[in-house]
Amino acid sequence: MSTDFAQAHALWITLVGGAVVLSTLLKSLLGRAGIPPLIGYLLLGFLLSLVDSRWGVVTEPVRHAFAFLADVGIIALLFRVGLDSHPGKLVAKLPRASIIWAGDIALSALTGFAAAFWVLDLALIPSLVLAAALTATSLGVAVPPWQEARALNSATGQLLVDVGELDDLSGVAFMALLLVMVPMLHNGGTVSAGIIGGAVALFVAKLVAFAGFCYLFARYAEAPLTREAARLEPAPGRMLTVAGVGLLIAALGGWLGFSLAIGALFAGLTFSRDPAAVRTEANFEDLYEFFVPFFFIGIGLEMEPASLAEGAGIGGLLLLTTVLAKVAGAGLPAWLVAGTGGAALIGVSMVPRAEITMVILDQGRQLGDWAVPPAVYAAGVVVTAGTCLITPLALRPLLQRLQPEKEEA
């Protein structure tokens, strides 16, 4: 092994190891302050980008290493979303939660597109990507204050969880459609309804086939596989089998053109039907905690320092419109089913944009600057950081003031 080759490996191992240590410290420190750790991960990645712009430490091997870890992070993230979203349970949630969900995503998408396209004068495709990205919410940011108030298992708290899960799934669905539509809009400028319809029909056909494969696997192969893994290995070994199969299903989704993120969601849904497999999530946490920070670090790393000023301006306006859209879009429908206090709590709790929002922007960014320009990407980070800081600060005193019903026994 040449000296240069060995030094290159030593460099990227040093940076990855440092990122692991720093992300762990940031999670602990920010957690004590009640700040979502993903803000620290984004900042860590951006600081690495600044260091690279000055000293060029992020070489191609280093960038590929971080990209690989970010890919596994996005798979872990979407796998968990699917794991928490049992299809049968989701259907049962629709009667009450869908009323809030429909108003929530409709107003968020419309205001997001209007602000981007007509106010900020962005191009059509970036505006569409932003509109889709801004529909999603982040339960991971909103849930801790509810847990602190011992109100998450209340009727209002569970309604919030139901709406948040629907938000995440619809956000991924919008992303899937965007990945089909926007390359056509970019390559053809304007395309006919027939061409769009044909492409969507082909996409839906492949999606149905993929979903059918996942259903058959879940119905006939998942339980025997899990049992055999449990027989041959203790719990960590079973977890590794589940994780490995999840990676393979995510990769199949990527090969079919759905992206790794959508494949990972279906992988999580595949295992969500089996309670024994869901219990392996306790062991999955270690892998989740290791890889997911790299997704957000990778986002910060991809931010161009030169685009920060423009991105902050765009992000500031989007931050205002997205907060108002979520509070009104979720809060007003929630008033019909949860009363005034419940509406206020749910409206504020739906404000944070984080995981799925950045997944959508990241997938768009991979298409090129024509889909998500650097300034728009930076604006997305500003919106994520802003909403994740605002929500806990507003939600904690609101929970104390309104005092929702406590957890049911």
UniProtKB/TrEMBL annotation:
Coiled coil residues, start to end: none
Domain Cation/H+ exchanger transmembrane: residue ranges: 22-400
Localisation: Membrane
TM spans (from-to): 6-26, 38-56, 62-79, 99-119, 125-146, 166-185, 191-218, 239-267, 287-303, 375-395
Keyword annotations from UniProtKB, A to Z: Antiport, Ion transport, Membrane, Sodium, Sodium transport, Transmembrane, Transmembrane helix, Transport
Pfam families cross-referenced by the UniProt entry: Na_H_Exchanger
Membrane topology: Multi-pass membrane protein
Chief place of localization: membrane
Protein name: Cation:proton antiporter
Originating organism: Thiohalorhabdus methylotrophus
